[in-house]
Amino acid sequence: MTPLAGWSTRQGTLARTLEMQGHGLHTGRRVRVRILPATGDPGSADARGIVFRRIDLEGGAADIPADPALRRAQPLCTMLRASDAAGVRTVEHVLAALVMCEIDHAVVELDAEEVPILDGSATPWIDAIRACGRIELGSPKRFIRVLGPVKVEDGARGARREMRIEPAARYEVIVHNDLKGFGDMTWSGELTPDVFAREIAPSRSYGRVKWALPAMLAGYVKRTPILRGARLSCTASIVGNRVIGGMRLPDEFVRHRVLDLVGDMAMAGAPLLGRVSALRPSHEMNHRLVSALMADRRAWEWAECAA
């Protein structure tokens, strides 16, 4: 395929190891993360897409590939769990940053169950990845070219949700969302690394303060970690019809839906050549869409950039 404006023509990895630390949004636990560069070309043991590695387990390190087949339902985040029960949660922001910074192969090593939330956005990851630098590998850049439409929908819970992916020459997104007190919000456009970093990455996780405490208490009762690490410093916290401290971007909430969508769709293994249209997307709906796409081999193909 002809090289795309704004994208590289070769697969890439980090130029050096990235190190970050913070606390988990849901577990509240401190966690240290190292993102290790791939040391071989695609196809080698050290260059197999994005892999999460838990190093805190008693039985030794466990690898968990970013694969939609390993996704497990969790409230308010995306979780991956390997067959040996090792899991990692809240992976969506770092996955979005990696795919949109064109880091095709890396190992995300962490010493706890949850990726740190940092400031609630993808910008700290983008900045850290760019500071480390990117090196090209020998293989051509790959995209997932969408060949036919795939649609998922859910109207069972009151508000209708619908997502659709269809062929397009570039990575395009149209997301519609609404929130009581803030009205209808839409973001649409072509996604490139620069557009994502500028218009989408700064948007933060958000929620109403009056809902956070009941959700937290319910999580303790059910022994499911929910929002134990929520702070004003890592969320756009809503009280009434306003955000404490104000919004970072116009329609920040819908932009964060785009961020989460990009991170969840990154589990397909490459950026998309297709148009994603979404009405009230959620992690569950994102997962259903990427899984439906991957399951239909007539609906997509690998596309490689010409040298």
From TrEMBL:
<dbReference type="InterPro" id="IPR020568">
    <property type="entry name" value="Ribosomal_Su5_D2-typ_SF"/>
</dbReference>
<dbReference type="GO" id="GO:0009245">
    <property type="term" value="P:lipid A biosynthetic process"/>
</dbReference>
<keyword id="KW-0378">Hydrolase</keyword>
<dbReference type="GO" id="GO:0103117">
    <property type="term" value="F:UDP-3-O-acyl-N-acetylglucosamine deacetylase activity"/>
</dbReference>
<protein>
    <recommendedName>
        <fullName>UDP-3-O-acyl-N-acetylglucosamine deacetylase</fullName>
        <ecNumber>3.5.1.108</ecNumber>
    </recommendedName>
</protein>
<dbReference type="InterPro" id="IPR015870">
    <property type="entry name" value="UDP-acyl_N-AcGlcN_deAcase_N"/>
</dbReference>
<feature type="binding site">
    <location>
        <position position="256"/>
    </location>
    <ligand>
        <name>Zn(2+)</name>
    </ligand>
</feature>
<keyword id="KW-0444">Lipid biosynthesis</keyword>
<dbReference type="GO" id="GO:0046872">
    <property type="term" value="F:metal ion binding"/>
</dbReference>
<comment type="function">
    <text>Catalyzes the hydrolysis of UDP-3-O-myristoyl-N-acetylglucosamine to form UDP-3-O-myristoylglucosamine and acetate, the committed step in lipid A biosynthesis.</text>
</comment>
<comment type="pathway">
    <text>Glycolipid biosynthesis; lipid IV(A) biosynthesis; lipid IV(A) from (3R)-3-hydroxytetradecanoyl-[acyl-carrier-protein] and UDP-N-acetyl-alpha-D-glucosamine: step 2/6.</text>
</comment>
<feature type="binding site">
    <location>
        <position position="260"/>
    </location>
    <ligand>
        <name>Zn(2+)</name>
    </ligand>
</feature>
<feature type="binding site">
    <location>
        <position position="93"/>
    </location>
    <ligand>
        <name>Zn(2+)</name>
    </ligand>
</feature>
<dbReference type="Pfam" id="PF03331">
    <property type="entry name" value="LpxC"/>
</dbReference>
<keyword id="KW-0862">Zinc</keyword>
<dbReference type="InterPro" id="IPR011334">
    <property type="entry name" value="UDP-acyl_GlcNac_deAcase_C"/>
</dbReference>
<dbReference type="InterPro" id="IPR004463">
    <property type="entry name" value="UDP-acyl_GlcNac_deAcase"/>
</dbReference>
<feature type="active site" description="Proton donor">
    <location>
        <position position="283"/>
    </location>
</feature>
<comment type="similarity">
    <text>Belongs to the LpxC family.</text>
</comment>
<dbReference type="GO" id="GO:0016020">
    <property type="term" value="C:membrane"/>
</dbReference>
<keyword id="KW-0443">Lipid metabolism</keyword>
<keyword id="KW-0479">Metal-binding</keyword>
<keyword id="KW-0441">Lipid A biosynthesis</keyword>
